[in-house]
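INTERNAL AUDIT FORM
Audit reference: QA-55
Scope: verify that the stored structure record matches its stored sequence.
Auditor: D.O.
Record contents follow.
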Amino acid sequence: MLQEVASAYAEYFKLDLASGFKTVQDVIDNMITRLEELTSVLQMIKSKNSDCRNAVTEDISRYRHEVTILSKKIITLSNVVFKLHSNIEILEKQVEKAEADFGVQVDNKLISLLKPFLKRKDVNPRSTQQIIPPEAIMFKSVLDNFEGNNF
């Protein structure tokens, strides 16, 4: 009976190591194949990235001078716009002062502009108000921004 029990339990300890290791070896081979594929893909990406970086670097160095000139033109035009804006503000203040001095209503500028032509009444001289001549307007020149530049 001991012999039978020992032979029965001996069956549990018999391992088929060749088939077990074959499965593990197949998994390892599959993983190695995937890692080699991944390595080759990463090397291609690195190569393409390097080519792209070199091309972009060449483009940047090639167009650097043109971009510098363009940025200077943009700065110059920005200065011109600023000076024109300040000149327009000065002129608007003078126009508003003149409108106030002459009693022009600014409700509808088109109608008030055409009012002398639409209504022909007897022209009564207004009371003689003393009109103060406007002060000389000093505009900032924008031409000095363009001197020496090849625009």
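Auditor finding: record pair retrieved intact. The two ends are 112 Å apart (CA to CA).
Action required: none
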